[in-house]
Amino acid sequence: MNNPNNNPSENESLILESKNVSFHYTHEKEEAITNVSFKIEQGDFLGIIGPNGSGKSTLLKLTAGILAPSKGKVFYKNQPIPDYKKKDFAKLAAWIPQEAGMVFPFRTEEVVLMGRYPYKSGFSFETEEDLKIASEVMELTGTKFLFGKKFTEISGGEKQRVLIASALAQKPETLILDEPISFLDIKYQIEILEILRKLNQKHSVTVIIALHDLNLASKYCSRLLLLKNGKMVREGSPNAILEQSIIESVYETQIKTLIDEEDGSSIILPRTKNN
Fold this sequence. Notes:
The chain is an alpha/beta fold. Helix content is 30%, strand content 25%. Strands 6-7-8-3-9-10 form a six-stranded mixed beta sheet, with helices on both faces.
């Protein structure tokens, strides 16, 4: 008999589903993720938030198929992720890490073309179609002006845009990003998030992203998933998640919340001794 807890929900718009997922690193005493269940539908812009060490990166790696759950299952389009061939899954979902970790001085267009690997066999050369798609995604991400420049010599914000272009070259329907704006100044943070919003709203790309900045998460995400100590505290609309009592409890600090009159998003401010 099939275990109902290991079967995906029947929903045509459902892209990804985590069912009672736990994960334990062998070198750690405690589980990094414990019994987390949630669903992502096509066109969602889901932000994963929580304090440092809450399990955001681990949960993202589970949704990207980089890690396999210790317990439970993650389904993509009603199929367990491990059942996909790696290249087939890469055509559906693209992973963008927090840091590139690239030391060889590839040119930016070469990095973008690396995103075409799911469509290649062996050491085949780039086709006209590959070059056309690379040009299109560099145009879409505003990185064409970086053509010919070495990836190791451009700024952090430019690197993130090139990595997004490389991921888009895979032609995925879902982008999974691990804190892509954490080390960037506000200009580049907004540029990256605006690119993701455009992809989400105009090109129907589903976005799953870990974010530290609660105010930006409120402005850009359609839904938030809040973690603490590897457990899901709550999931829902940004304004529902970013309630004062919830954030104070999870982050163990006093805050006050306001509403931005322009877009209705929540604004989180720390309380100081003077206020």
